[in-house]
Write a sequence for this structure.
């Protein structure tokens, strides 16, 4: 096990069992704001997960009344006292946060957000960056930067790749909160469960994924995001190459053989 399992009171609580790693934002008094330390902790944990063959799926959850309120505005405001008014810090912060969000997309394992409470600004971006999301019925989502003179430009990148254009623009231009059912209808989350049941729902979904070939999930996740950036003909050419190569994998031979023999497959991850 490569993932460093932390004590439950850590800034980012990390736990791994039965092939599922759970990363829990644990700064409830600050509404799990993405501070410098929180971004660093998530970046480190994601790197450890990526290298851990025992981890088949990942859940990102949060303690307290908010999933994440986004960037730490108090921390950001304090840097206005810098000699350059905070310009260098703000640029570095956005780069570090963007790198962390991209690490979720680039992770070999599927990542599922378990959302209770509010997920706003970069917190909403974190949800959108995950491959899948399960929301409790009381969860709410917003990109409210426009209300304080700071357009949610980096959250927009993840949001606009998950939500249809008109819905994304409405969220970004109005800053209004949307409820869990609307988020599901928009495509920001996959499932809505009872209030307080998001973590259980996400772990159940993660367990379902963890039972599949980890190699196949990794191939599929990487190909999914790659082909989205291509034109139709290029996407088909790329996907055809990926599928032909996938057919040569030991797990593909095993899975097809198990299907024909009507037995459970024994995945090897190769």
């Amino acid at each position: 096990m490569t993932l460093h399992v932390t004590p439950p009171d850590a800034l980012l609580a990390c736990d791994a069992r039965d092939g599922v790693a759970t990363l829990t934002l644990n700064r409830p008094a600050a509404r799990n704001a993405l501070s410098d330390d929180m971004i660093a902790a998530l970046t480190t944990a994601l790197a450890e997960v990526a290298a851990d063959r025992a981890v088949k799926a990942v859940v990102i959850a949060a303690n307290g009344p908010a999933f994440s309120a986004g960037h730490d505005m108090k921390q950001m405001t304090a840097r206005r006292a810098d000699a350059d008014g905070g310009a260098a810090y703000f640029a570095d912060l956005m780069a570090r946060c963007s790198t962390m969000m991209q690490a979720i997309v680039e992770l070999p394992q599927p990542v599922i957000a378990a959302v209770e409470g509010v997920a706003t600004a970069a917190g909403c971006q974190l949800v959108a960056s995950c491959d899948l999301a399960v929301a409790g019925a009381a969860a709410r989502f917003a990109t409210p930067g426009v209300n304080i003179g700071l357009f949610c430009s980096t959250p927009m990148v993840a949001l606009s790749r998950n939500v249809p254009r008109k819905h994304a623009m409405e969220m970004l231009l109005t800053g209004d909160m949307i409820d869990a059912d609307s988020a599901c209808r928009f495509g920001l989350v996959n499932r809505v469960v009872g209030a307080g049941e998001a973590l259980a729902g996400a772990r159940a979904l993660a367990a379902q994924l963890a039972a599949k070939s980890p190699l196949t999930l990794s191939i599929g996740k990487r190909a999914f995001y790659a082909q989205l950036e291509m034109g139709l003909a290029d996407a088909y050419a790329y996907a055809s190459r990926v599928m032909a190569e996938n057919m040569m994998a030991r797990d593909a031979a095993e899975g097809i053989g198990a299907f024909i023999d009507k037995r459970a497959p024994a995945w090897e991850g190769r």
In short: Residues 15 and 139 are 23 Å apart (CA to CA). The first helix runs from residue 36 to 50. The mean pLDDT is 96.
